[in-house]
Amino acid sequence: MEKLLNIMAQLRDPDNGCPWDKKQTFDSIIAHTIEEVYELIEVIEHKKWDELSGELGDLLFQVVFYAQIAKEQGYFEFNDIVEEICQKMERRHPHVFGNEIITSIEQQKKRWDEIKANEKLSQKENTASLNPSASILDNINHFLPALPLANKLQDRAAKVKFDWIEIEDVFDKLQEEINEVKEAIELNDSDFIEDEIGDLIFMAVNLARHNNVDPEKALRRSNRKFEQRFRIMESLMAHTNTSFKDLNLNEMETYWQQAKKAIRSNITNSDRC
User: Fold this and answer.
1) What DSSP string runs through 82-151?
2) Where residue 68 falls among pLDDT bands split at 50, 70, 90?
3) C-alpha pair distances (Å), 161 with each of 106, 154, 158
4) pLDDT given at position 269
5) Which residue, 34, 96, 247, 250, has fewest beta-carbon neighbours within 10 Å?
6) What b/e readout covers 121-139, taking b as 16+ CB neighbours within 10 angstroms?
7) pLDDT value, residue 112
C-alpha cells in the first residue's frame, strides 16, 4: 500500500510528475472512476476471475488518486479514509464488534438503517442545521443512475409503509401505466409520452423491488441476452447469404426464434457435459 501511495505522489509531483496526472482534479477523474466501476462489474458478471484482481487494483487506484489530491489541498490523507471506514464498519456492526444479538439479515439491515439515521441526525445537530421539515427521502444520492435511484426512492418510501402490500396491486398499477402510455401516444404529445414512459419504467422498478430483483442487474442481463441473440441471428443470416434488408419482420422473427433455440440447445449440451 505504501508503494502505491508513493507512486501516486510521484505521478502528481509538480516538477517531475506525469503531465496528465498533475492536471487532474476531483471533478475530472469522476468519469474515470465510474468507468472503472463498470469494468469491474463486467468482469464479475462474466466470471473472468483471472482479470478480477487487476480491475480491483484499478478501482483502488481511483481511491488513492482522490486521497492524493485531498492531501495536496489539506483536506485529509489516505490513512484518514482507512480509519474512518474502519470506525464506521465497527459502529454499524454492533453484533460483531459489540454485545448486541442479531440473528437474521432482516434484523441486521434494520439495525444498519437505524445506526445510519442516527449518524445523519448527529451530523445535523453538530452543525446546528437540523431541518424541522426533514424528509424521509433526505440523504439519497441523486447522482445514481436512474434505475437504482428509483429503487432507493421506493425503498425509502416503503419504510413508512407507502407501498403496495399485494403483488397483484403492483400488476394493476403496471397495467394502468401501460394504458396511460398508449393514451399519450394516441395524443402524439412528446412531453406526455416521455412522462408516461418514465412512469411505466418506474413501475417496472417497483415490480422488481417487490420480487427482490435488482433492476439495474436485471436490465444488464437483458442487454447481454439481446446482444447474444442478435449476434447469432447475424451469424445464421450470413450462412444463408441473407441480410436484414432482404427480410420482412416475420422472417426476422424466424431467425430470432432460431437464435433463442440455438442458445437453449447450447445450454442443455453444456449441462450434459
Assistant:
1) HHHHHHHHHHT-HHHHSS----SHHHHHHHHHHHHHHHHHHHHHHTT---TT--TTTT--TTS-HHHHHH
2) very high
3) 16, 10, 5
4) 57
5) 250
6) eeeeeeeeeeeeeeeeeee
7) 87
Compute the half-sphere exposure of residue 199: CA atoms within 13 Å on the CB side of its CA. Answer: 18
How far is Cα 156 from Cα 215, in angstroms, rounded to an integer? 16
**232-240 long-range contacts, Cβ below 8 Å, gap at least 24?**
232/258, 232/259, 232/262, 232/263, 233/258, 233/259, 236/262
Helix (H) or strand (E) holding 72: helix 49-72
Task: Give per-residue pLDDT as tens, 211-227.
Answer: 999 999 899 899 999 99
Q: Which residue in the block uniquely carries the three cell numbers 469491474? A: 40
Burial of 207 (0-12, 13-18, 19+ CB in 10 A): middle
What integer best gives the mean pLDDT of the chain? 90
What would the DSSP string read from start to end of 179-224? HHHHHHHHHT-HHHHHHHHHHHHHHHHHHHHHTT--HHHHHHHHHH
In the chain, what is the straight-line distance between the N-terminal and C-terminal CA atoms, in Å? 44
Nearest-angstrom CA–CA distance, 243 and 125: 66
Q: How far is CA 18 from the centre of its chain?
A: 32
**Ramachandran region of residue 212, left (φ > 0), alpha (ψ -120 to 50) or beta?**
left
Which residue, among 210, 258, 208, has the nearest Cα to 230 in the 3D structure?
258
The set of residues, in sequence order, having a beta carbon less than 8 Å from that of 11 and lying 6+ positions away, is 17, 18, 21, 22
**What cell was used for 44?**
464479475
- What pLDDT is attached to residue 123? 66
